[in-house]
Each structure stands twice: as structure tokens, then as C-alpha cells.
Write a structure and sequence with these properties.
CATH architecture of one domain: Sandwich
Number of strands: 35
Shape: elongated
Number of helices: 14
Structural class: alpha+beta
Helix content: 10-25%
């Protein structure tokens, strides 16, 4: 043996360490070679009890034994290693050759492996038990198989405290054209930290990277992955999943409470609630308010609290800020047992440029594009996924599959879809690259989104995909087979922007902006819309919901109550960001808990009480949700009363008693007594909800004594209903 022969190993530049290491047949018998740079002595203990010292054959730490073995097919061995005065016994990783399943690798390289998290990453498993090509048999040994995709690497090593973070010790084996590298480490316990050290084949640069498929990370600011043990959680939500699979979600109520887990509530010392503590406090609160679902801002691992999770670095790992993966499983399971759905915010549109993560993963643009006109997302200073690369599609599809399969999430809200659809998104002329047809559409991203939605709806019946899409891109929530993107629903950003712009106007000027209230009906049924009042609208100088409202204190609270009722009674599913129910005077602050003390004040408690009643009204009355996506469920009573800034409409259910409700909104601080609206039937009507109720903090102007519609045609309706319309308020009416 010459040092020249060993140079690739000694210099940590080999793609095939099994060529040099492990137990192998030699010309005159058998040879066992190990590379342990920190060892002073190495002894092999054979299965029959014999022990043989290995000779140091290179000062760098290469040890070797040569000899003959009787009954070699039955031989097994353990290494006894002396290192800095300590002795340890370990299994040789190079006794376990690569065993990657060829079919899974093929599908991964084809972009069609939506469960590649079962192929790549750190996978606890048993190895051995069968003879290799030379008849050497190793009994079943527990350990962890590591695989990582790094096609442009010259060498990949596994590093961690188990080898002093020394990239020479555990060099991985290349699996050829797949670009995947593999190594099995025996007897490595759960919780062990690790990273990959990658040497680029072109420039020779070395980078230490977190595992893209890691299922758990150490707590920030550290960035190493942790070996996640097998889940010990026993799911109790079988009945929930069964109901979800057959649920008619198109016609069912959907009221979402959007939550940032790190700032909803905190301990007295400012520390985070963990997932289990959130289960104990958050679930009863959301149930009491009457929401049907919780949507969490991204819970995927991320290094910076201030990113709110939108700069994810762990696409398969729940953030360790709030506990272990099983703790998140517990939280979601408890939600399901309580009757609450869980939607997870998911970010395939971009990824951060942190050196430890995906950026230039193997020393080259791998997950991202090479061309800066495609690579960079200027709004967030991040990289854009290369959706045209097969392995990247497998990665992202698998991430979506993972959260739905392993954590039983009921849906994914897909962030920043518009940034994915357009090649020129937030880019100036000359800063973007057209597609092959010369257009601005990102054809690869479109195909990926269609594949994503097809996969989700096929594999997880009843699970939802919701797009945050801010443009007029057609058919976002229409089936793929009809040419749509295939999302279940889409955020109605137009409704949100128009509504908040209108509400910010002084009431005396609102008559000049009346179209902000009515324009949305021109496109309201072109998509399956969610009406959001989201986190993005209460940060970065945009003011809180209450802060947006004009007027004195009384008017501001009345306007906020008006806004909430307007949202809840308009056609479309609902989303409210946490804190909106508290009437927060200041913007959301992600580094502190919500100002719960506000509820001691009647005006704030009144807003919360209103939202509670609005949610229950919405859920209990089919007219407010059954036909959210169908024009048959809505009809204007009067959309033209701009002079008084009043709009009124009817909501309809599909059939049955209580099929019809009337909604009247007064956007001025002037009460309107005896205001007449046209309704579908004469006779008694009753007031179901009035945002001016004293219970909510209003002046208590209303119609509590009952209402009678006269059989006099009015506004193209067969009956006329006079009512007292409170200032800056919404009333909801139903026929008796």
C-alpha cells in the first residue's frame, strides 16, 4: 500500500470511501482498514471472541489488519478504539455498503418522488442481517442512514460531535449519476447533532451545510440538525380525518384564526409557550370565539424570529423554539379532538441566502437558479427555487406531503404565489428573463403548482390548499384538468385592499369611494375566495385595524365593529389575524405577546364579544356560508345609495327554513330611522345581530321590538321593510 493510493482518502476528496475502508478480500486473505485520525490504537474484536491489533500504516491515522479468516461468512467485528486516554467500542460504518433503493432514486431524479423524505436525510433503521457479495454476514445493527443530494460535490462527509466535526472521518459514498451520497452510521442515538461537509468538485471550496431534509434542529442561533427519533405519538384523530375526507368544504363554514405562535401569548419572563402549552391555552380560546380553523404562520424551522417563519431553512422540521416534533403532533391532534382544523403556512416561493442552508448547497446554484435574473427575489433578499429542476420539485412536493402525512395538517396556505407565477415580479426591465415563448409567465412554477395541488387532493382527501395570490391570474382555484392551478381557495386581496382603503376614509368622504364596496361583486365568484384580514395588514407602518379607523374613539370602535361584521356577512370564507378581536391600538409586535390587558376595558371586550357572536352566526346560518362561491347565494338589495354610504344585500342558503338573510350596512355616523329596504317576503322579521348593541360597546339603537315587512313592492322586491339603521353599524335580519 502506498500513500499515493490513499491520497484521496487522506485529503478527504474521495467519492468512494468503501474502496479504501472496511473488511475486504485481499490477494492473500482478508484486509480490514480504518481511518481514524484521532485514534492512538485500534483493535478489532471478532465475533468469536478473538481480538487483533491493527497496525498504523500511515501517520495520518490509517490502521490496517491483514490475515486469514476461517469461516469468513460468519465473521462479525467491533472496533476498540483508544483516543486521548479513553477507550470506546464502535461499529465500523464501512461494514455497511450503500443500499439506496433504485426506484426511489429514479423517481427523485425524475421529479416525481413526493415522499423523498423517506429516501433522503437522516433515517433511523436497522442494517445488516444478510450476507454481502463476499459472504460476510453482519447481524442486524441499529443506526442512521444519511443521504444527501449534492451532484456537484467532489466529496461529502458527515460531521458532528461524534467525529469532532472532522470531515475526514466519515466520508460518504457517491451513488453515481443520481447525485446522492450515502453513509450508514451504526449506533447513533436520537438527538445527535450533525451537518454535511461538502467539497465542490470545480473550485474545491468547502462548505458545512445543514441537512435539507432534517426533521429536527437544535435551537437558534445554532444551526445543526438533530437526528429525530421515531415518533412516539399515538394519534387520536381517526374520526376527524374520516369526516374530513367526506366533508363538503365548498359549502361548509370556514372561519380561520391566523396565529403567530411566538407572540400569541408568552410567559411572564417573555419566554415562548411550547406546543403543548399552546394546546392548553390556544384551543379553548379559539373554540370560545367560534372559529373553525387555526392557521399558523410558518412553523418550519427558521433562524430569525423577526422573519415570522417566512424565511424557512428547515422544510421538514418543526421549529425547535416551541418543542420537539411530537409536541407539534400533540397540538394538532388536540385541535382535531376539539373539532378544530389546522392550516399550516408553507413557503415554496423563496428561501433565505444563509450560508448554512440551501444557498449554493454543493458549492453551486443547486436549489436556486444560476442566472441572477431568475435567482434573486428582490423584495425579500432571498433566492427563488428552480422549479424546472426535477430534484427541486421532488423536494418541495415531499415537503408538502410531509406536513400533511406526518403532522395531519388539514391544509396548506401557500405564501406569495404571485411571486412564483411571474418572472418579472418586482423586477425592472432588464432584470428578468422571459420564458421560452418570450412571456413573463414562469412556466415551470405553474407546472409545479398544478402538480402540488393534484398531489395534495389525491393523497389527502379533504385537505385544502389556499393561495395567497395578489393578481388577476385566472383560475387559481379551478381544477387542473380544466386549465386551473388547482388550489382549493384563494385569498381575495382585492377585497381586502379595497375594504381597508374605504374604511380608512373619513365617513364624510366615503360616498366618493362607494365603488370600493361594490366592485368586488363583479369578480366575487370567479374564484373560491377567502376574505382575509391578515397579519400583513397590521405591520410595517400600516397601523392596526383599530388604528386604520377614522374619527374619535367612539367612531373608531364603531367602524371596527362595522368592518368585522361586513367581512363576516359578505360572500367568501373568513380569516382574521390574532389580535384583531382585541381592537389593538398599535401594530402587531412579533417579539411580545398580544396585549391581553385590553380586555379589561369595555370597548375592547365588546369587539371580542362581537367577533364571537359573528362567528357563531356565520356557522349556524347556512345562508352565510353554503353558497359563498356561487352567485346564487348573493343578491344586492341596494348597492347605489352612495349619498348615504349604505349598502344592503340578501344572502341565501341552498334550501330549507332560514334560507334567506338580509344585511344592511351604514358606513356613516348618522342614524337612519325608518330606512326602507326591499325584501323577498312580507310579514315578521327579526334582528339577528346589531353591531351597535350596548353589549358590544354601541349606543343600542336597533329594532329589538320586531319588524314587519309590508306587502308593498320596493326595490324590485315584493315587500318593503322599514327599520332603524344605527350609525356606523351592520344589522343582520331574518324572516320569522
Amino acid at each position: 500500500m502506498t500513500r499515493q493510493f490513499l491520497r484521496p482518502l487522506l485529503e478527504a476528496r474521495t467519492h468512494d470511501p468503501f474502496h479504501f475502508l472496511g473488511l475486504q478480500r485481499a490477494e492473500d486473505g482478508w484486509r480490514l482498514r480504518v481511518f481514524l485520525p484521532h485514534a492512538s490504537a485500534v483493535t478489532v474484536e471478532w465475533a468469536d471472541g478473538q481480538a487483533c491489533a491493527l497496525a498504523r500504516v500511515d501517520a495520518a491515522g490509517v490502521f490496517e489488519w491483514q490475515g486469514t479468516l476461517e469461516d469468513a461468512a460468519r465473521r462479525d467485528y467491533v472496533l476498540r478504539v483508544d483516543e486521548e486516554g479513553q477507550r470506546r467500542r464502535l461499529r465500523d460504518p464501512y461494514a455497511f455498503p450503500p443500499l439506496a433503493p433504485a426506484e426511489d432514486l429514479y423517481l427523485f431524479n425524475e421529479g416525481r418522488n413526493c415522499q423523498s423524505y423517506r429516501l433522503l436525510g437522516a433515517l433511523p433503521e436497522m442494517r445488516g442481517g444478510d450476507g454481502d457479495a463476499d459472504g460476510v454476514c453482519v447481524p442486524g445493527v441499529p443506526g442512521v442512514t444519511f443521504r444527501v443530494w449534492a451532484p456537484n460535490a467532489e466529496r461529502v462527509s458527515l460531521v458532528g460531535p461524534f467525529n469532532r466535526w472532522d470531515g475526514r472521518v466519515h466520508q460518504m459514498a457517491s451513488l453515481g449519476a443520481s447525485g446522492v451520497w450515502e453513509l450508514f452510521l451504526p449506533q447513533l442515538p436520537a438527538g445527535t447533532l450533525y451537518k454535511f461537509e461538502i467539497r465542490n468538485r470545480h473550485g474545491g471550496g468547502i462548505a458545512v451545510k445543514a441537512d435539507p431534509y432534517a426533521r429536527q434542529f437544535e435551537q437558534r442561533p445554532a444551526t445543526a440538525a438533530c437526528i429525530a427519533g421515531e415518533s412516539g405519538h399515538v394519534w387520536q384523530d381517526g374520526a376527524w380525518l374520516g369526516r374530513r375526507a367526506t366533508r363538503d368544504w365548498l359549502h361548509a363554514p370556514l372561519a380561520i384564526y391566523e396565529v403567530h405562535a411566538g407572540s400569541w401569548m408568552r410567559h411572564a419572563d417573555g419566554g415562548f409557550y411550547n406546543y403543548r402549552e399552546l394546546a392548553a391555552r390556544l384551543i379553548p380560546y379559539v373554540l370560545d370565539l367560534g372559529f373553525t380553523h387555526i392557521e399558523f404562520l410558518p412553523l418550519m424551522e427558521h433562524p430569525l424570529d423577526e422573519s415570522w417563519g417566512y424565511q424557512s431553512t428547515g422544510h421538514f422540521a418543526p421549529t425547535s423554539r416551541f418543542g420537539a416534533p411530537d409536541d407539534l403532533r400533540f397540538l394538532i391532534d388536540e385541535c382535531h379532538r376539539a373539532g378544530l382544523g389546522v392550516i399550516l403556512d408553507w413557503v415554496p416561493g423563496h428561501f433565505p441566502t444563509d450560508e448554512f442552508a440551501l444557498a449554493h448547497f454543493d458549492g453551486s446554484p443547486l436549489y436556486e437558479h444560476e442566472d441572477p435574473r431568475l435567482k434573486l427575489q428582490p423584495d425579500w433578499g432571498t433566492h427563488v427555487f428552480n422549479f424546472g429542476r426535477n430534484e427541486v420539485r421532488s423536494f418541495l412536493l415531499s415537503s408538502a406531503h410531509y406536513w400533511l402525512a406526518e403532522f395531519h395538517a388539514d391544509g396548506l396556505r401557500v405564501d406569495a404565489v404571485a411571486s412564483m407565477l411571474y418572472l418579472d415580479y418586482s423586477r425592472k426591465d432588464g432584470e428578468w428573463l422571459p420564458n421560452r415563448h418570450g412571456g413573463r409567465e414562469n412556466l415551470e412554477a405553474i407546472a409545479f403548482l398544478q402538480e402540488l395541488n393534484t398531489m395534495v387532493h389525491r393523497e389527502f382527501p379533504g385537505a385544502l390548499t389556499i393561495a395567497e395570490e395578489s393578481t388577476a391570474w385566472p383560475m387559481v382555484s379551478r381544477p387542473v384538468h380544466l386549465g386551473g392551478l388547482g388550489f382549493s381557495m384563494k385569498w381575495n386581496m382585492g377585497w381586502m385592499n379595497d375594504t381597508l382603503d374605504y374604511m380608512a376614509q373619513d365617513p364624510v368622504h366615503r360616498r366618493y369611494h362607494h365603488d370600493r364596496l361594490t366592485f368586488g361583486q363583479l369578480y366575487a365568484y370567479s374564484e373560491n375566495f377567502v376574505l382575509p384580514l391578515s397579519h400583513d395588514e397590521v405591520v410595517h407602518g400600516k397601523r392596526s385595524l383599530l388604528g386604520k379607523m377614522p374619527g374619535d374613539d367612539w367612531q373608531r370602535y364603531a367602524n371596527l365593529r362595522l368592518l368585522l361584521a361586513y367581512q363576516m356577512t359578505a360572500p367568501g370564507k373568513k380569516l382574521m389575524f390574532m389580535g384583531g378581536e382585541l381592537a389593538m391600538p398599535h401594530e402587531w409586535r412579533c417579539n411580545e405577546e398580544l396585549p391581553w390587558r385590553l380586555l379589561a376595558q369595555p370597548a375592547h371586550a365588546g369587539v371580542q364579544a362581537l367577533l364571537r357572536d359573528l362567528n357563531r352566526l356565520y356557522v349556524q346560518h347556512p345562508a352565510l356560508h353554503e353558497l359563498d362561491f356561487d352567485g346564487e347565494g348573493f343578491s344586492w338589495i341596494d348597492c347605489h345609495d352612495s349619498e348615504q354610504s349604505i349598502v344592503s344585500w340578501l344572502r341565501f342558503a341552498r334550501e330549507g327554513r332560514g334560507r334567506c338573510l338580509a344585511v344592511v350596512c351604514n358606513f356613516t355616523p348618522v342614524p337612519r330611522r325608518g330606512y326602507r329596504i326591499g325584501v323577498p317576503q312580507a310579514g315578521a322579521w327579526r334582528e339577528l345581530l346589531n353591531t351597535d348593541s350596548a353589549y358590544y360597546g354601541g349606543a343600542n339603537l336597533g329594532n329589538g321590538a320586531g319588524l314587519v315587512a309590508q306587502p308593498t313592492p320596493w326595490m324590485n322586491r315584493p315587500a318593503a321593510l322599514p327599520l332603524d339603521l344605527p350609525p356606523l353599524a351592520v344589522v343582520v335580519l331574518a324572516p320569522d
